[in-house]
Amino acid sequence: xxxxxxxxxxxxxxxxxxxxxxxxxxxxxxxxxxxxxxxxxxxxxxxxxxxxxxxxxxxxxxxxxxxxxxxxxxxxxxxxxxxxxxxxxxxxxxxxxxxxxxxxxxxxxxxxxxxxxxxxxxxxxxxxxxxxxxxxxxxxxxxxxxxxxxxxxxxxxxxxxxxxxxxxxxxxxxxxxxxxxxxxxxxxxxxxxxxxxxxxxxxxxxxxxxxxxxxxxxxxxxxxxxxxxxxxxxxxxxxxxxxxxxxxxxxxxxxxxxxxxxxxxxxxxxxxxxxxxxxxxxxxxxxxxxxxxxxxxxxxxxxxxxxxxxxxxxxxxxxxxxxxx
Length: 325
What we know:
- The chain is of the alpha/beta class.
- It has 10 helices and 10 strands.
- Strands 1, 2, 4, 5, 7, 8, 9 and 10 form an 8-stranded mixed β-sheet that branches.
- A hairpin with a 2-residue loop joins β7 (146-148) and β8.
- α1 crosses α10 (289-320) and α2 packs antiparallel against α6 (129-137).
């Protein structure tokens, strides 16, 4: 039995993660099919759909997104532990993945999450696939955390942004890491996702006074719409002035993720790194899937010959080595 396993470690990066789809497509076109797939954040979503045989469905969904459709999935949560509840996204994933459990998948798969309170790195290798995905991509303050087996979990990028170590622990002999934040290192800024200020629009910053003859329902409806519009600007504001809350939180999160990723990969380096050039893609540009997938394919093609050569050498070496372990 061939115990030479190829591992694929898919990193986090919010919307930039659509590049993972192109990476996988290019790897498969070159005859490289990973035996072990592990992912953090958006990497867990793409990796999970791939192992479940639903990558085509995910790709079709990604390519169909427009800014308006993306906004439709942002179910703003006014009184919880995250700006977005994430239920609409979960419902969309459940359409095809509702009844799939991780342990029933044909290949090894793990989603990485972080436990609130302890900061423990949690490897989700059993249970509902969609629950594991939701926990892994729950950016603190943006998405509501997910409870699994009595533990509250959020984005795994806080502890292991590119989970090479997980692939190694599962038995991968050759690990391909996909770093979609590689070209951000050392840069002072990213494409802005900012809030637009409108001092002349008080309805968006303060509730309108309640008229005596009004029962309150119309006021709540108007203010609810205004508040939702204001929150939407935090993600797709046209101004380049003061950053909105989503920008501040995700930029800070991205800086932490980048530092941790470099530290973790220095201590446990992968055998190959694929680094799509997506630094000009804003974190919530989910509607730009076409170009991100293409960039993932192009990045893979740039290094595919070297990856194929190294895998072939390692296989031959192991075949000649008695009792290889």
